Each structure stands twice: as structure tokens, then as C-alpha cells.
Amino acid sequence: MSFKRRVSVQGGEFPNAVHRLGRIWVCAISVALLLGLGWTTSSSAEDRPLGPKDWYLAQTLNKKAKELYIQGKYAQVESLLKKALAIGEELLGSDNPELVPNMYNLAQLYYAQGRYAEALAMHKRVLAIDEKTLGPDNPDIATDLNNLAAVYYAQAKYAEAEPLYKRALGILEKSLGATHPHVATSLNNLASLYQAEERYAEAEPILIRALKIDEKALGSKHPDVGRDLNNLGTLYRGQGRYAESERVHKRGLAIGEKALGRGHPDVATDLNNLGLALQAQGKYTEAEPIFKRSLAIVEKRLGDDHPYRGQGLNNLALLYHAQGKSGAAEAHYQRALVVWERTLGEAHPDVAITLDNYAALLRKTQREDEAGVMEGRARAIRASHDAQVGAR
After folding, report:
1. Contact status, residue 166 vs residue 190, Cβ threshold 8 Å
2. How far apart are alpha carbons 349 and 353 in whole angstroms?
3. What pLDDT digit, counting tens, does each position of 286-325 carry?
4. Distance CA 194, CA 196 (A)
5. Through-space distance between the first and last CA atoms of the chain, rounded to whole angstroms
6. Which of 71, 166, 337, 357 shows a CA-CA span of 20 to 30 A to 133?
7. Does residue 298 contact residue 331 with C-beta atoms inside 8 Å?
């Protein structure tokens, strides 16, 4: 299995939340409410037998984990989610539907960290529970399939992802109707797969269909319309249709700024991708303030240790690299590495991407030995990643 990397001339896009239909950090409290249980955050829970209050503690841990996840503090998040899941499993059993939100959150954490084997196992577990509880054609099953496909997609295992995306789409069209906004989200996911495979002729009409659904159902100024435009702009950039990409990204950005506010994290995504479209056309002086504004939003809203900050620093480094500003490029590559290694771990695929980009800069400045060290680290990360993929 080859490692899918972002080439240094392009940079990377911020993750655009098109792989998720519903459950994002859901905190299930139905059992707690049904039983009328009290609230507790007792730190001595491990020292006494598990009882009803511990289930509510599990929910408290899950909510706290959500807050830390938003801040990019993944190590702390994992500890809390595992503790919450262990409490729930002991109280309710390992296949109780009430545990699904906790499992889902843990799977999303593993996905964000590039721990795809663990994410895959957890999403499969969620799917099995939901199919048994809800039946095969419930809209929540489409969410499960979507997220399972996203893990395969992240590993460039497109043949495994495609039937899952298609099954999810079929469930939603049947249960909600062909013009429901959730169908548009599912269409975006399928189109992203085709785009990754450079099946642009298939991806474009799907994205246009999604855009038309959202415009009709939600209105032309809805944030989901901005998302659709962002994805369409990314497609155009992949095809080399840079002027169209810029135009569409600007329209999506305008919608996001008005609907969400100029400082919203989704606006940072829009800015980032607009910057990539400008950079692809050699419009470096226009791209730089766009990238900087995107990075500033991330730093203010998500914090200095969030993985998205690493992406923003990497993209600015690539811009400076393209301009021949070696000193500025190197400083930003170094800062990106610090953020990613601290938040995602030294063996995450995104670390390898920045190492490769940094090595290219070092070779350009005749620092061959240092470049070789960077490339060696990147190769080791890719080898480890490919071994994990091949082992499944």
C-alpha cells in the first residue's frame, strides 16, 4: 500500500467536515435521565464499586473530552474517553447501544491521530451495534458507513471506501428523499473519493448536484452551501482550473463570513483553500495575507497546539518556499513540525509530509546531509504507516 502524500508544490487543505453526517462528539445521557441519576465528578470513583452515578460520571468525562478535543489535546482526550467507555462497558455490557456515542468519539480521535487500525475497529464495532439495534436501512447506519469509509479513504484504500459511500447514499436517498441536505453531504463524500482518484468527470456533476440540493433546501447563503462551494473549488484546482477555483472559493468564503462570522474556524478552512488557489496561479502576494489570516483564526479559536495550526504553518512555509524566501520557509517548517509532533505524535503521516517538504528546501539550499536526515525520517514514518495498513 503506497503512502498518499501531499506534494510540496501544493500543500494541504484543512480537513473539511464532509465525512460526518450526524454524530460528532455526542454525549448520550438518555440512561442517566431515564434513571434520574445525580451528577457526580468524584475523583474517587476508582476506589469504590461501580454504581449508577458512575454512568453519569462517564458522561461527564465524555463532555470534558470534547472540550479538550477542540483544543487539540489528544493525549488527555484518549484517557478520558477510555475511562468513560470502561465504566459504561462494566455497567451496561460491551454491546449496549448507549455506548455508541462514546465509541464514536474514540474512533474520531483515533482517526484524527492517524491511528487508522484502531479507528477502523471502533467504527466497525459501532456499525455492528447500530445494525443490530436499528436495522440496516436507518439513517444512522448511513452515518456509520460514511465514517467507516472515511477511514479507508484516509489510507487511500478507495476500492474499500467506494461501496460504503454508495451504500450510505442509497440509504439516505431511500429514507430521507433524494433532495434532503444529508444526501448532499453524502454526495460530497463520494465526490471527494472520485477526486482523490482523479475521476474528475464523475466528481463534478455529483458536487454540482449537492450544491443544487443545498441551495434549494437551505438557501443560497447557508454554511452548507459554502462547504459545497469549497469542495467544488478544490475540485477545480485539482483540474488546473485555477481561475474558476478562485472564483468559487471566494463565493464560499463570503457565505461563511456572513453566516458564521469572520473569525469562525470554518472560515479559516475557506481562507486556506482560497490561498491554495491563489498560490497555484503564482499570486503569492495575494495568497500570503490570506494564509496568515487563516492561521490567526486557528491560533485564536483553537489554540497554539491544535493540529490545524501545523497545517497552516506548513502551507505558509510552502508559499515562502515557492517565493525563494528560504529563511521564512525553514522557520515555518520547523514550527509546523513542533506542533504536529506534539499534537499528533512523531510518527503521524502529516509529520512525514512536512519532513519531505522541509527536505526539499534543504536540498535547494545545498544542505544535502540535513535533507537526507529529514527524508530518512519521512521514509521511516511511511514504512511504519504502510506496515500498519498492510497488516489489516
Report:
1. yes
2. 7
3. 999 999 999 999 999 888 888 889 999 999 999 999 999 9
4. 5
5. 11
6. 166
7. no
Calculate the CA 225 to chain-centre distance: 19
Taking residue 222's Cβ as centre, other Cβ atoms within 10 Å add up to: 16
Instruction: Point out the least confidently predicted range of 72-86, 290-304, 354-368.
Output: 72-86
Average pLDDT for 49-65: 70
pTM of the predicted protein model: 0.78
Give, in order, the Cα–Cα distances in Å from 362 to each of 124, 201, 353, 354: 43, 38, 14, 12
Closest CA to 314 of 376, 359, 361, 357: 357
In three state form, how does the secondary structure of the chain look?
CCCCCCCCCCCCCCCCCCCCCCCCCCCCCHHHHHHCCCCCCCCCHHHCCCCHHHHHHHHHHHHHHHHHHHCCCHHHHHHHHHHHHHHHHHHHCCCCHHHHHHHHHHHHHHHHCCCHHHHHHHHHHHHHHHHHHHCCCCHHHHHHHHHHHHHHHHCCCHHHHHHHHHHHHHHHHHHHCCCCHHHHHHHHHHHHHHHHCCCHHHHHHHHHHHHHHHHHHHCCCCHHHHHHHHHHHHHHHHCCCHHHHHHHHHHHHHHHHHHHCCCCHHHHHHHHHHHHHHHHCCCHHHHHHHHHHHHHHHHHHHCCCCHHHHHHHHHHHHHHHHHCCHHHHHHHHHHHHHHHHHHCCCCCHHHHHHHHHHHHHHHHCCCHHHHHHHHHHHHHHHHHHHHHHHHC
Give dist(CA 388, CA 380) in Å, integer: 12
Q: Residue 71: what pLDDT?
A: 75
